[in-house]
Amino acid sequence: MASSIEKFGNGQRSSHSPVYADQIEPAPSFAQDSTFRILVGIPAYNEEVAIGSVILRSSKYSDKTVVVDDCSRDSTVEVVKLAGADVICHEVNQGKGAGIRNIFYYAKKENFDILVLLDGDGQHNPDEIPLLIEPIRNGKADIVIGSRFIVKGMHNVPKYRRVGQEVLTIATNLASGYNITDSQSGFRAFSKNTFDCFSFQQNGMAIESEMLIEAARANLRISEVPVNIRYDVDCSTFNPVKHGFSVLNPIFKLIVQRNPLLFFGIPGVILFLMGMAFMFMVLDTFNATRHIETIYVMAFLVCSLTGLLGLFNAFALIFIRDVRSKPSAVR
């Protein structure tokens, strides 16, 4: 399956200047455009410091803002209500993926045409929302990702983070078949026709990669536009190494689940055939010497049984993949 991805905002060549949101005329107000109903969705956890301004600035470009509070321990919910956004509260902490799942459910139930996701910590610039949704409005994309890395030298990502993000992006691209430059960006826009394309199996931070993998399976068109990210407001408490492995491990599992024949089926067949070869060696030796070579017998048992186990896992994962391919109802 050939996946479709485009770069917008001069993102294909680093010698071009990036397109910034302040170069875009927001008129006639996006929020007043009757052609598209736009929802801004914000998954939040302990974001009382910045989320109020994020909501107010986002409201210039949207018809409504909804925040999913993941059982914050601060005053996030109170600030969200004061800023005029709708809020959905988790009774227990469930993770970012669970928050995004409920945002999609809200967007579908309220019949919005475009959903914009961004973080509540102030790292994403709401004034870049027009740039993000333009490819969808023009019918050129189903999903648009705000990328920090389309234009070389544009980003100010700390080097230790850049290395980890590059590893995760390579893994995601291998699993999806896309050529994304910033697979971990949480600043994204989705057209209405994507709302039923995701199963939301990942509750944690691997949700961004899972969505790209499932977008590829649905043959959705993905575009990227250059955006700016602030790191002076980064309040993350995650250890970057621990966080990287917590995302990479689910990505690897997704790769295996999406390609069970490659990881289990083909090795299983090879091992089973090797086991058969050792069996014939046992029989041949016995016919010639009337003596059973124990080492050949052990090799036959290990290879044939391991091969059968690999084949069983491959078919089991294919069955599980087919069951999960049907998007589950979001609660």
Structure, explained:
It comes from Methanooceanicella nereidis. InterPro entries: Glyco_trans_2-like, Glycosyltransferase_2, Nucleotide-diphossugar_trans. By secondary structure, the protein is of the alpha/beta class. It folds into 2 domains: 255 residues, Spore Coat Polysaccharide Biosynthesis Protein SpsA, Chain A (Alpha-Beta Complex), CATH 3.90.550.10; 65 residues. It has 9 helices and 8 strands. The chain has an 8-stranded mixed sheet with strand order 1-8-6-7-5-2-3-4, sandwiched between helices. The longest helix is centred in the C-terminal third of the chain and has 31 residues. The chain is elongated, with a radius of gyration of 24 Å. The two termini are 31 Å apart. The C terminus is likely disordered.
Principal-axes geometry comes out as: elongated
Q: What's the Cα radius of gyration?
A: 24 Å
Major sheet: 8 strands, mixed
Instruction: Give me the number of helical elements.
Output: 9
How many separate domains make up the residues? 2
Order of secondary-structure elements: EEHEHEHEHEHEHEHHH
Care to count the β-strands? 8
Low-confidence stretches: 10-29, 327-331
Return the structural class. Answer: alpha/beta
Q: Ends: how far apart?
A: 31 Å
Strand adjacency order, main sheet: 1-8-6-7-5-2-3-4
CATH hierarchy, class of the largest domain:
Alpha Beta
Which percent band covers the strand fraction?
5-15%
**Can you say what the CATH homologous superfamily of the largest domain is?**
Spore Coat Polysaccharide Biosynthesis Protein SpsA, Chain A
Transmembrane segments: 261-283, 295-320
Keywords: Membrane, Transmembrane, Transmembrane helix
Domain Glycosyltransferase 2-like: 40-196
Protein name: Dolichyl-phosphate mannose synthase
